[in-house]
User: Fold these one by one.
Assistant:
Number 1:
Amino acid sequence: MNVVYILLPVALLIAVGYLVLFIISVRKGQYDDTTTPAVRMLFDDEAEKQDDDEEQ
Amino acid sequence: MVDCTHCGLPVPAALVEPGSEQQFCCNGCRMVYRVIQGYGLERFYDLQELSDTKQAARTTDRQYREFDDPKFMELYLREAVSGLKTVELYLEGVHCAACVWLVEKTPSLLAGVHEVRLDLGKSMARVTWDPDRVQLCSIARNLDSLGYPVHPFRGVKIRDMRRKEDRALLIRIGVAGFCAGNIMLISFALYGGLFHGIAAEFRNLFHWAGLVISLPAVLWCAGLFYRSAWGAVRVRSTHMDIPISLGILTGFLWGVFSTVTGRGEVYYDSVTLLIFLLLVGRWVQRNQQRRAADASELLYSLAPASARLIVDGEIRESALESILPGAVVEVRAGDSVPVDGVVLEGSSSLNVSLLSGESRPAPVEPGGRVFAGTENLSSRLVVEVTGTGEDTRVGRLMQLVEEAGRRKAPVMRLADRISGWFVTAVLLLAAGTALLWWWIEPALAVEHAVALLVVTCPCALGLATPLAVSAAIGKASRLGILIKGGDVLERLAKPGRIVLDKTGTLTEGRSRLVRWIGDETVKADLAALERHSAHPVARALAGGIEPGKELLQATLVDARGGGIRGTVNGRPVVAGSPSYMRSYTGSFPEWVLTALDDVTSAGLTPVLVSRGGDVLALAGIGDPVRRDSGPTLLRIRESGWTTEILSGDHPAVVQAVAEELGIEPENAHGGRQPEEKLEYITAAVAADDRAVVMVGDGVNDAAALSAADVGVGVHGGAEAALSAADVFLTREGLSAVAELLEGARRTFRVIRLNLIFSLLYNLVGAALAIAGRIDPLAAAILMPVSSLTVITLSYRANTFRRIRDR
């Protein structure tokens, strides 16, 4: 059971890591607009493909 | 049926081009199609398939010169990195994935544009560009040519502030969630210990860990609740946050005490979960209300921000802010007047209904005054500016609106009213428990009293109102009813007085042919002649009469001085006001006089029609009552509301409309100025305990809307009115008002049910605590179960429903 003394801080550290990432993403405005990114991903692929065609 | 290649709407039969692959419903679509093809952006049409909404694109011929005005730049532009500038623009007509793609392609079309990011939900585009290489006006023209008219977004500052608040709340929720989640893991070990035993060493470790992890949640995340609870205590009122803060703090402090002394129970898990759930509840409610408020602010951006300034005979579009009194501006037919001023050239008629409530168009001549917010109906005017912005009549009315809004007393919400006696009851119960156990087993007295305080901490009670309200607001917005504040629904729950504006609210707000007495055969002749005139009465007549099969050759002779003269198929036709006609035909026959009486007493404008010298017919022009006004008012009255009319129009017209809609004559008030409307509503609010609801559309109603318990702005109203209202409708017609009242009543029922259920859970918890049967595990189970009940009840409830035509 003594392993808890290591596991507890490690688990918390990992969780804190995610919390920090969350805070950074909020500060960067990733949650400001939750509708457009969902449709924007529809056309980014196509644009890249066209670029590839030009390169060939 | 042929669909338009660009927008997908049906193409009118007359415009179908046989043998062509591309068909267009209008020239706008044809032009947009060519522009898109010209840029090689055909993929727009593939993406458009993905969306289900179709809407006609329209382009304006605006030049957007005012976007390069120094004053404009100062107001709206912001510096970006390395000499670039950014601006937020509101785009009209954005509705699908294809629009996002097209708008964000702008950088590849115009050199110098660095980035365009479109927010589809808000229709806002953020443009970043290099001012040395490209002008903002050409970017705006470019977006316009793609079918998205551009408006500068006013209120960037407010939006930035709100965005900051939103982010801060999200971070609070994140931290609270982090604390609650991690403590829950630790608590599972402790719960296991309850059943199988746990070494005191580990028990202490877990308690200390819980204490440390819950610190940020209790000290920082929950600060929101303490602050509003303290605020309420200071002004000696009650608020839901008082019992919440009480529960959180007792639970936490007892936990600290137990941890430090090494005996007793800890409630860190319940406390942090409570904080997390309550914060999420607040977030949900805020977002729903924010959406409605945002929508009304965007409407404000649609108001004209520019005027056509005349300098040395040349016309320049210029930002409104840079126009000073003494300048000369042009107002084209169909435009709204952007300033207060005096007419120098041209005579026209104005639609003043939004400003004064008067339904008849007001004629203006050189030397006459015009006011911002009116609409120029028939021909071009040149106006010398006397006032702009806050110095206009509209501006002064808006100051009244703000004042009225500030004076409005906040209502005590049901949940807050309950919280008063809830706190008392909980404290009494806790004291009772302590006394009871002091007598049975003194060592456990404090322990059980604390358990009671924690278990009765009103999580579900705190969620009951926000969730029910935000679910209802979401459902209402799908019906085109945008509600800006949650307390609106509680105020509308009980029947009260509903005061309606007439012009544009009960009626359609524009002149139409309402009655025709006499010879039907001159109808077609009159319509053919009136088509040559742009006068509003002429347009009402031409639009209200179906063209006949016969081809009529109409020639206009004269259309000045209250009437129209011309020939149709060679026969002379004259139409006009009674005084105009008297000068042509002399006295009128008996039937015309009675018909005239009849028409004028109904509040209509009479137009006499003669052919070949004899008066043959009488047309009544008026502002017809909307088709759904009658049934809607009936429905509202049936549910116990009192209906009243408060209008700026002539009392005779108001009485006629009241009679048609079944409103008692003493409840129909006409001829009221905006200030008098405000006075009437303020007096009504002060005199009556019941809710006073004002429904209106014009600037003249705005102050009254803001002073009423609930102000409802109807579709098509002035921006000022919609932003002053607590609720605004994005759907044509009045039936949405009845839906609002009924929806509010059902929502209130859900709130009450929620409160009853959460009080029941608290009762169970309190009973267990008094019996000494509560432990942290029981508390941790009761809390989420009660919250889940409330969430389910709120989202399953069918609060807002569309009313089908009866």
Number 2:
Amino acid sequence: MEQILTQFFNVNLMIDAWPIVSRGLLMTLLLCIVVVPLGFAGGLMVALIGTVQHRWVRWPLIVYVDFFRAIPPLVLLIVIHSGLPFAGIRFSPFASVCLAFFLNNSAYYGEILRAGIESIGKGQVDAARSTGLNALQTQVYVVLPQAIRNVLPDLVSNTVEVVKLTSLASVVAFHELLYSAEMARSITYNASPIVMAAGLYLLMLWPVVRMLSRFEHRISS
Amino acid sequence: MTGFERFTDTFFNPDVLATYWPVIAKGVVVTCQLAVAVVICGIAMGMALAVVRSYKVRVVTFVIVCFADILRALPPLVLILLLYFGLPNVGFNLSGFLAVWLVLTLVLAAFTEEIVWAGILSVNKGQWQAARSTGLSFTQALIYVVLPQAIRLTVPPLTNRTIAITKNTALGTVVGVGEILNEATTAQAFSGNASPLMLGAIAYVMLFVPIVYLGRWIENRFAWKRA
């Protein structure tokens, strides 16, 4: 028992590791601030392009979405970070992560928003168009506000997944929360810094997860 | 050499591909083993937890909710590193494969529990009362009346979640599990050529595109048609 305490919950070590880990936390937050809006914007684009019925627009889009939903994000990240340099394209870890997340997230957010747009009745579009709004205005002012409200829980839950995924950035040596904690662990041979990182992730995400559960249960009952 | 030749030489080099495809194939087998083990154990455990939760024993419910919340809020990679590097210090040596299997199983169980529980809640109270009034016990009512209806509702979200978690088997590469990504990056380092990595990526796409399609089909098939 005491061994578990010293190996996993060593408070002195956690205090020592705090400067490194807190910097990692900042980088994780920064990454989230960049990656979430970028992915959401990409998803919005994907969903809006998806409303175009033309077949030469539809098929490439379906291929894009399915491809990036099928490939594990870590594989995508490693292909970008250590495959592309063979073609003379070299990205910094930060840029690699942003690009991989943009491709992956725009597919996921896109699918969610598409479901939202499809949940809006055709009458809404017809009515909006008949008041003289053009197709884009109809989507932006009439359809999307309702669509986003309908799929809000899915959007939030996907955002939680994205925040969790930022931990993958540690694999390409981007100094985010997990990377810093892992660095502190390898210096001290003690898992407490990783436990601290886990605690910080919990602190960030537990309230959101709890809220999502309540929301789900309220809908179903 | 033209640009195109140089491109194929770097990314789809026939010689390199011929040398390394057996290694990648071995990785595919490991990925599949890991994925199947995770899906079976995770879903079974999650359903069991949801059933246990429906008996509404306060302490048990509290433990299950905490378990589900924590595992849904933590990135799987954090847990994998924690188990893989932390446990040896207290005398448990866990192989990378076991660590990844354990973490992904627990994560899938947590999500399954939440989804199935939401399904159980969504079954109309009248169903419970009617079942109990015919003389079925609580457990019988749960198994024969409520769960069959609940599970139908949970199929689409459960499928999507399962696919997402199965893709996390790629995380095994970080702790040295010989799955596709690990074999591909190792082969890339040995050959100094990007072809094995491309082959690995293609293997993933070939594995998961059918599954994504299956997921989409199931989603439409079981869709809750709104009026």
